[in-house]
Specification:
The protein is an alpha/beta fold. It has 2 domains: 99 residues; 109 residues, Nucleotidyltransferase, domain 5, CATH 3.30.420. The chain has 9 helices and 5 strands, in the order H-H-H-H-H-H-H-H-E-E-E-E-H-E. It has a 5-stranded mixed sheet. Helix 9 links the parallel strand 4 and strand 5. The chain is elongated, with a radius of gyration of 21 Å. The N and C termini lie far apart (49 Å). It comes from Phocaeicola coprophilus DSM 18228 = JCM 13818. It holds the Pfam family DDE_Tnp_1. This is Transposase, IS4 family. GO terms for molecular function: DNA binding; transposase activity.
């Protein structure tokens, strides 16, 4: 992305917010019923607060609200007209459908995907690099497996690996995921391998956890190339 003086003198977070289209975000929320019975804490305020929490790496609602209160005089620059209470934020996190935030991410990805690569990389990328997609997952271990089903028992301790699993698909020349899914840690990775959304000439890189012979056959028929490790028990 070329250098620009458009954001000169603005705080970093304000620069991030400037890339968001408030009217489109509100429209997406209304489509999924996210604004029903909402008076003040709309999706825009909700999104701005949660992005702030992510950037600041807060772990609790108490931390979020304490920091916002300390910076209350600057909230108007973010489009926040009223300081939300902790209970309001908690209720919104529970009530507002997560598909709204998913649709916002997809909309932003579609809007900015052509400028995700820096100018220098875009000119140097080889043709096959632009067709390469990488599929992988990572498990986020939680303190208890009461919330999410465990993956299995540890061979030494016998304890289950409770947590959530983050599945991602990323284009090698872009640097941000084009698709993200959150599941319980016990979910098999292969569900993210979807031949129907892949086109002729695409290249897929994945590990052996994604091996599904029926899907691999479909990829072959669609002329999609794939690179993976074979299972040890392959016969």
């Amino acid at each position: 992305m070329g250098k620009s003086t458009h954001f000169s003198g603005q705080p970093l977070y304000c620069q991030v917010i400037k890339l968001l289209d408030k009217s489109r975000i509100l429209r997406l929320s209304r489509e999924y019923g996210g604004e029903h019975y909402v008076k003040r804490f709309d999706i825009w305020t909700h999104l701005v607060v949660m992005l702030y929490a992510v950037i600041m790496r807060f772990d609790s609602l108490r931390e979020i609200m304490a920091s916002l209160q300390a910076e209350s005089r600057k909230l108007c620059h973010l489009g926040i007209r009223l300081m939300p209470s902790r209970s309001t934020l908690s209720d919104a996190n529970r009530r507002r459908p997560e598909i709204i935030f998913e649709s916002i991410y997809r909309d932003l990805y579609t809007t900015y995907r052509n400028i995700l690569s820096s100018d220098s990389r875009k000119n140097r990328d080889k043709a096959w690099m632009k067709r390469l997609q990488i599929i992988d997952s990572t498990t986020i271990t939680l303190f208890s497996n009461l919330l999410f089903k465990g993956v299995g028992r540890h061979p030494k301790t016998g304890k289950k690996k409770g947590g959530i699993k983050v599945h991602t698909v990323i284009h090698a020349n872009e640097g941000v995921p084009s698709d993200i899914k959150f599941t319980s840690a016990a979910t098999n990775d292969s569900f993210m391998l979807r031949p129907s959304v892949m086109n002729k000439g695409d290249i897929i890189a994945m590990d052996r956890a994604y091996i599904d012979y029926e899907k691999l056959e479909t990829l072959t028929q669609r002329e999609v190339m794939y690179v993976t490790k074979m299972k040890k028990n392959l016969k």
